[in-house]
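Dear Dr. H.,

I hope your travels went smoothly. While you were away I took the liberty of generating a structure for the chain from your last submission, since the lab meeting agenda had it listed for discussion. I wanted you to have the full record in hand beforehand rather than looking at slides cold. The sequence, exactly as received, is reproduced here:
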Amino acid sequence: MFARLLIWTRFAVATVVCVLFFQVASGQNQNPKKTYTTQRISTVPPVIDGLANDPVWETVEWGTDFTQRIPADGEKPSAQTAFKILYDDKNFYMLIRAYDDEPNKIVQRMSRRDGFEGDWVEVNIDSYFDQRSAFSFTTSVSGVKGDEAISNNGDNWDPSWDPIWYVRTSIDDKGWISEFRIPLTQLRFGEKEKHVWGIQVTRRNFRKEEISNWQYIPQNAPGWVHLFGELHGISGIKSQKQLEIQPYVVGQMERYPQEAGNPFATGKLDKVTFGLDGKIGITSDITLDFTVNPDFGQVEADPSQVNLTAFEVFFREQRPFFVESKNILNYQITSSTAGGSYTTDNLFYSRRIGRPPHYSPDTRENEYAQQPQNSSILGAFKLTGKTKRGFSFGILESLTSREQATLDYQQSRRKVTVEPLTNFFVGRVQQDFNKGNTIVGGIFTATHRDLTETHLNNLHRSAYTGGVDFVHNWKDRKYFFSGNVIFSHVAGSREAILATQTAQQRFFQRPTATHLSVDSTRTSLTGTGGTFKIGKSGGSKLRFEGGVTWRSPGLELNDVGFLRSADQINQWLWVGYQVLKPFRIYRNFFVNLNQYRNWDFGGVNTLNSFNLNFRTQFKNYWWIGSGLNYDPGTISNADLRGGPALRYPGGWGHWYFVETDNRKKLQFSFEHNNYWGQQQYSRQQDFALGISYRPFNSLQITASPSYGLNEHAMQYVTTQSSGTDARYLVAAIDQKTLGVSFRLNYIITPNLTIQYYGQPFASQGKYRDFKRVTDSKAERLDQRYHPFAGPEIAYRAEGHYAIDENGDGVQDYQFDKPDFDFVQFRSNLVARWEYIPGSTLFLVWSQGRTGDPAIDRFTLHNVSRNLFDIQAHNVFLIKYTYRFVR
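The corresponding predicted structure, in token form, is as follows:
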């Protein structure tokens, strides 16, 4: 019955897609492009004070007639907006007047930079006029700046871009005013006498949750930048060669628990470090960024978690040098609207640079080791640019130092290399054709390690990856077809390539993988991957996307990229329907259907999955959403860590969320996720609550508690040997996880902020009903294992289980008790003062507590008591930077 239902469901979805694909598009954009003509300043430039009373503003006309985009798409806004633009040899000037009949109700919320709180206005400038990229400058009525680098026709907005520019605001009886001065050094443009730039001006009326634009772009438009209006009248401006040098000095003091007998754990550490960041505008459209001995001391800690899977956890980049302009070097293999575990795979994952050392030396009894936490980045630079012919490029070069651990044995010390000297190179290019409707690009990465010590022979000596990609849009960019093909090649010793073949991304040693085999004589490994997808991205309420992506068994990206798992072929289909104009009690409504099907390269179907989701916002500004997932059964090639593929029964999943009006001072959200495995093999629940309180405009306090339950009958425990045979042991696990994230933002002025982040976290796992996998793909769950019972299993006081399979009274093998109690607390308190634009003073206090105390009962009281009984590791630092600009 289900097989027939599956066939008919896929046939119906495919029919819908075909109808959407072959339907006649509605022609070109029906909204004619507006133009605004500016003038060069020939007298005194305006003073940027937010008062707009300089006579020079009278030399140009107002740009007016804004159109509402959200919520009443295409209607007149409740209050109009107007702007003026001027320029001179050095600066771009803008005046925006936001009219309001009730100026006393204008919302003046304070926030961090790029916080976008309260009422705000924004200008987007496509100074390249490539109709794909732009620079965004935003100011709230409270004077807080926001700035983002826009790429991929509005698909990517990078808030890490922090240019130097100036703005002032004021409120009067007509509404509020903002005045901008943007140095031309902060923009990129080609060398020509006369310029036409793309321009868009946006206003947000916060209390009505209303967005309006000067150039009307419907919500369902297929893109953003290519639909901007045009700015005319700019001529005679020359390349502004930018030079910014930002040296820094950091004073650091650490206090942590002293360890008796350990000469490296004295309880304190004090040091001073220096470094340098810089930016050089080689031409108006080519920029060189560089850093020497960068400091990341004020970066927020990664969220805590316990990983029981075979796969690496992906963490987002938070270090400023790598975050800024990260979209230029990004090469995501699979960008899927439907999501999927493969969407994190990327040829460049900047956290590989400066990562923790690969090697940890073994120590003897009474021997102590001082291990570096991270590889030091000696220096790095990024060269990025785009020519007037639409050719863009990005190059990153970085060198990390040879790191050594110091070992002390009875006051005799020795050094052991734990990470070799390593060079990383990333190069990315793209070329626009046909006014940006077609884009062709490529990437190449190289990693080289100086391997002179034999104990590091398990690392690749060299690693190369590369790829080509393209995207083609047609019918006014309503439809698209895109794809990429990639390769990897790693080389090293036999030991290194053997480790690569048997690593968790591949597991070539799997006994059920008849298409794979381990070759211990190999000294290199090559693989391929890629994605092709087609879809409809705008122009109507219906949209779709379908595609296929693959990773060959030999693909390896993890030297400077991120690869979760190889040996897979994944197909997906997404169909969505959206209503963007208010109707009845709704402001908007979204619903979508997803379908997935996965195989390995041996032709084994490892996943079939479907889900249906919806979300909507009501006219009272509350959000709700829900979804239903179903999979008839899965096969995991990784869960037994190199053992046979393991079949799981199918299951149902359900999720829902509720979110209250985010305009209010007190806001709540709640989310609940459920999964029920068939044959009672699994039950998972996650609860997440969000609370945000803003007692006054400059202070916001948020708390996000979460609680998770995980029950699984086949959790991997260990692999043991019995004679010449391997034994793959699993057990039922009862896991409970509790965490709370606290944030406090106190914005004293737009340039003086105090921010706090703290996260207590705890997870407990109890194992029972130990089993030995016997027939991993049997039809019924209870036929896939043999449960240990009676005299077959015994718990020893030494903390391990002894197994006697044949009952002869002789232990066949043993394994440690896998139960765990993990607690952790991480916090960061940062005071940041930007005393002049681009120059800052940081005061930072970080605290960490980590341990594994025995928790008798997993209650909030017991977890808190155990957590804060652990001695803290405190770090205090002061960082001073000064930006020299020419």
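Two observations you may find useful: The longest helix spans residues 2-22. The chain has five helices and 46 strands.

With kind regards,
E. W.
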